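Give me structure tokens for this 110-residue protein.
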Amino acid sequence: MRYSPQDEVGCLNYPFALLARGDGDTENVVWGTWQGIPMTEFDYWYYKESTDSKGNWNRTNYRFSCAVTQIAAQCAHLSLDREGTLTRLADHLGLHDIEFESDDFNQGST
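Here you go.
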């Protein structure tokens, strides 16, 4: 495995919705073969800026650790994320989604 504090392999080019959120970058990239499996691991961070009704500026930072590998299969697109306001509203309207074993994950707790 190789390591670089900067992204030398172009991780932002992966076709994942997460990598298009906000303004951000990748760092701490590890890539190579692990136990015969090609892998890339990296940290991704982004931020969003906003202002409230009084003009106060706010910046929210987000950080993720990501791992990517290829498998010999064709799969449908799948994305797992925490519950948000809209998905909770859908639950109350009777449009239930999949419940996972982790209550923290299901409830969107941090």
